[in-house]
Structures are given as C-alpha cells and as structure tokens.
Amino acid sequence: MKNIAVIGAGTMGNGIAHTFAQNGYKVNLIDISEESLKKGLLTIEKNLDRMVAKEKISEADKNATLENITTHTVMQNGVKNVELVVEAATENEGLKLKIFKDLNSLCGSETILATNTSSISITKIATAVENPERVIGMHFMNPVPIMKLVEVIKGYNTSQQVLETIFSLSEAIGKVPVEVNDYPGFIANRILMPMINEAIESLYNGVAGVYEIDTVMKLGMAHPMGPLQLADFIGLDVCLSILNVMYDGFRNPKYAPCPLLVNMVTAGKLGVKSGEGFYDYSENRKAEVVAKQFKK
Q: Annotated catalytic, 189?
C-alpha cells in the first residue's frame, strides 16, 4: 500500500496527509475548497519547518514530504487508483454518509475506506457502501504528526484482514494502534468527554473559575492541558457534537451536554478556531481567561 487519499484539508486532514507523506506514501489531499487546500498545505509546510528547526528532519526530508502530496478539488480524480481512503471531513453523520456513498461508486471494491470520526458509528457509516467489510475507523489524535495513538475501530462487518492491514499500516507510519469496538464515543471520547463536560458543569455551577479548574487538573492530575483549555483546542462545537452522539446512543443523562456548552456553541464561541472560548485567543490576549463571568 503506497497510494493514499485523504478527504478534508482541515486540522485533522492535513495532519493525516502530513504523516503519511512524511513516511513515504503518495497522498492525494482532497477538499472541495481550493482555499482550504492552500491553507492545509501551508500548515503542513510550517509544521515541517518547525521539525527542521528542531533538527528532527532534514530540509531534504521536508521537500520530499511536500512532493508526496498532490491536491484535488474533484473527489473522482483524488481517489483514482488509491489503496486506502481516509475520510477526515467535518464531524457530521449526514456528510460522512454522503461521502461514503460517493466513494462506493468511485473506488474499486478492494479499496479500504477509513473514517477519522471521533464518535459516529462505523457500522452506520458502512451502510453507505456495498462492501461494508472494508470500512473501518482510524481515529487519529490531534496534532496528528506528534500524537502516537490511533484508535482502530472495527465496525460490525469489518473484516479481520482489513483490521490487520490497518494495524500494520498504522505501525508503519510510527503510530501505536489500539483496537476498539464500535460503540458511541469509542474509548478516547467516552472517557474524555464526560470529564470535559463535568469541568464545564463545575464552572457553570460556580464551583471554581476557568483558571482554577484547569490548574487543579494540570498540577493535581498531571494533565498536560486543563479540560477547559483542551475543549477550546478540540473545538466546543466538536465536543458538543460528540456528547450528543453519546447521549443519543446511550440515553444516559451523564452524557447530556452542559447548558453552558450549548449556549457557547450557539453564540459562536468555539474555542481556538473562533478566537474565543473559555480563553481569549486574539492576538493581543494570547490565551487569557475570558473576562466575563460564566454563570447560569
């Protein structure tokens, strides 16, 4: 397997493309937006420059990585003659089902179809294709070039051969694959999201402030990033989407998103991507705690 297509040039998509390309794979990076593709390539180049500056790779390695990436705005052209497609589009079930329905008609029957979904059922996504045994989850962690873990999620119909192939491929690009069964939130988010939601509830109920909550978890629990800062980094809209998927899947009130989270997403305060969440990320503030009081 040497030819990979990645659908989506956003944070996860460009990171996945970067990782495969740096390990010698030919990557077709696909997005409907030419602007998104340019932005994705610029991000990859900046990340490679950091690695060169830190002497983790050479300038020749950087150039070879960039040469391994070809961009496409037409999916049909981008998925032609590839052995694996990794979908990394927005975390929206309807969109993913449409993409996989299109892939079903555009790719050969042997092409492995992977999704980077962080919570949506692999089994459900696989209903969009005629050969569901080739559909699998590859949940990379952000930032992809640095984080080692890949949750490999086996859908109800995923074949053992496809699972083993993706395990071997993940190891070949320097990742540590972990097999997980197909249930809402898988493992990473089933554990992480309730913690983030509880941190937001604690803020909402006035137990402590943003800085205090994050400091307790960083210094007391040795977390590299506090849960509220991490939520900003992930995207509050993404956190809300995952919690909703888990709540719908389990019908357990412990997964119900905090009203404060719902209100912030409704107001467009999504974290780093929008410039403000629990922290202010504008140029003159640089991740300061937002001054407003978070109250009911």
A: yes
